[in-house]
Amino acid sequence: MSNRKFKKVQELEPAKSHQKLSPFSEIEQLFENFFPGHWMTPRGLELTNWPNFQLPSSMQSPKVDVINRDNEVIVRAEMPGFNKDEIKLSLTENSVTISGERKTEEKEEEGEYHRCEISQSSFSRTVGLPSYVDSQASKAKFKDGMLELTLPKTEKTKRIDLKID
Prior knowledge:
The chain is mainly β. The protein has two domains: 23-52, no CATH class; 57-162, Sandwich (Immunoglobulin-like). Helix content is 7%, strand content 39%. It has one helix at 23-34, and strands at 64-68, 72-78, 87-91, 95-110, 113-128, 139-143, 146-152, 160-162. A hairpin with a 2-residue loop joins strand 6 and strand 7 (146-152). Belongs to the small heat shock protein (HSP20) family. This is Hsp20/alpha crystallin family protein. Residues 59-163 form the CS domain. It comes from Amphritea atlantica.
């Protein structure tokens, strides 16, 4: 027999179970470790409440209601802060496109102090209609930030640009 002496082997703790991550989660975790905070978040857009995340109002499309009546379709859109000159409507036989663009410029001058801020926002939203409408007989009204289109039902029609009264 040999006189070999054996050292006591250090006991190891059992491995901790790790949750299996998808490849995308692994990459995101790597970036999160390297760039703490919200590394993919543009400035000013905090995503801490992701399920309820909304774009700033300057980047949102208007909320739209479509009401299907017997002889007409009514489309209402919330357009707060817009003037009727900043809104464009385009109509087809079975859809309406509402678009808008707003530009503002603020200037402030006091002695040697000069400040100028320019902002621009735009949107475009196309809404499908439940039936064909007569684009020639359609009407649009705009009052207190609310746009209302009255679209009489008919057979197929061609696309036209609609002016706001």
